Please model this.
Amino acid sequence: MHLSRIVLPVLDVDEVASFYRTTLGLPVQIEEEVATVTVGRTQLEVCTAGSAVGPHHLAMTIPRNTFGSARSWLEERAQLLSRDGEDEFEGPSSWNSRSLYFDGPEGAVLELIERRDLPPGRASTFSAKELVCVSEVGIAVPDVEQAAALLQQSAGIETYGDLASRDFAAVGDLHGLLILVRPGRAWLPTSDRYAAIAPTTVEAVGPRSGSCTLGAGTSIRVTESSADHL
Model:
């Protein structure tokens, strides 16, 4: 599943846009109080929220074998987040991945993730152009198990890996995941940045067409694509 368009509410569009443009060096366009950030094949749109929405979580895929150069690039631009003195994190064994987490605008927990089952990079040096896509978006829902079941029923999106619980489920595949969590759960690796329900829009290319709403106005729409495109 590819995440093609994500719309997130934020408190200060200009501040968030400046982070992605100036700090990360990504293309950003602002029109009618909406900032559109191009992250590889994903369009990330941020718009003004009426009130506080809590910290967001997004993960951006980097090509295989670029982890070291991506770390050097990131350290020059953002503050890495750590836990117990560690700032590099192996994913669950079923994911075959490793990650760097870093501080984003408005307390967002952002992530660079290397998925070892995806192709290697070709560039000799790392830059923002090497970011493949946004491959994870965090979504707080009142009932994780119910939301996962609804996504499977409405668009054929399956739970990924082996970590599903009442508090957490990753739904999708290694190309794109909806990270479903209960409100109040801390985004890893932090212990004080809590997921909050916020109206979010996600458009994706997946196994079959379908759409659903996951509490508080979060809209998921999936367009079917051929297997070779996925």
